[in-house]
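User: Hello, beginner here. Can you help me understand these amino acid letters and fold codes? It all follows right here:
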Amino acid sequence: MKKLLVIAYYWPPCGGVGVQRWLRNTKYLLQYGWEITVITTQNGDYPATDESLVVNVPKEIKVIQTKTPTFSGLFKKAGENKVPYGSLETNSADSLFKKVSIWIRLNLIIPDARKIWNRFAYDAARKELLTDKYNAVITTGPPHSSHLIGLKLKKKYNVNWISDFRDPWTQMGYLKNVKRLKLTSYLDTLLENKIVKHSNVVIAASRKIIDDLNCSTDKIHKITNGFDPDDYREIKREKKSDDFNLNYFGTLPPESNPIIVLKAVLQLHKKGITGIKMNFWGNVSNKVKEQLVILDDYEIVKFNKHTSHKEAIELMANSSMLLLMINKVKNNEGIITAKIFEYLGSEITILGVGPILSEPAIILQETSSGKMFHYDDLNAIADHIENEYKLWKQGSELALKDIDKYNCVNLTKKLDSILEKFI
């Protein structure tokens, strides 16, 4: 039997996009004869909780949830709603506690605060390796501190170790707009290089991540995120709404402010096109909310709480247009948010705002699923929304092409071919 040990901080009932990559990979690896054990957290510091995802974990997968120290209680005592996620920016309105805690996180903790889980995960992994034979161990980040577990296992037991980079590490977008001690950045880079050096194989979710890592080309592989076709098989497509719903799903930090899109919709509103609504599901930065509300004179914008993954997929599929925001930070051409692939699976046209010469822009173009616009290209964004609004009025359907390469079933074939080397 081929056996695989996966170490993942984010796993159901954790919600959000971070959990989807390995929930899907493990699901389809079972079809290639892999016996899988997942070591994960118990009530960790999650961006959201989604109990509905628990039923998506195949019964054949052995899941070990370990004790997980968190910072959530400390933040609640200090009057904060939750531990910061997706952004480490602060502003003058933030509490002193939040400002100090984020400074400590940025400058005194390498690589991230979730490393306090590592001791418990390592102990669980060690017990598994001593009682059973595994062909390979996979660690997935963020949090990239999880890779330190793999490094320790590699040195102690000489395991076949694969480090998976779902997002950049030292080049992470939210580190671009904050001040950090040069020594901290230097030490963080040294640690990143150490992980890459000692991994047997490195997997990255984008070409930009690969370019940023100091890694030999023969041991690094690109496997993008993808969509699971099973998610869309039984969704209900409702009759066309009276409103043209331009919808966004997921976290929206200050670096991804969609105010330019609202300005475009307001421009159309003045032309008499009044049926366009902007809806947001997920964690939206208070700073972003405030700026949108101030500008919104016609109640165009509506904020909704985080919803389950299943509900989000159905809402996507019943949207008129989907909004994709790429963080406005340095070197962002390689940021590929996981939601772009679920947007593809929903078969709804996508409006992208970000670098026009970028990996997500290429994906939109090659799949004919939408178009990417620069952050300040107001008139072009307005014209595009107006054109899509007219097509929507006519009942035109999106003609997608070449999206099968982003189907999780096909992506897992590539992953299996990599793992087969360790048999």
Q: What stands out?
A: The chain is about 35% helix and 15% strand.
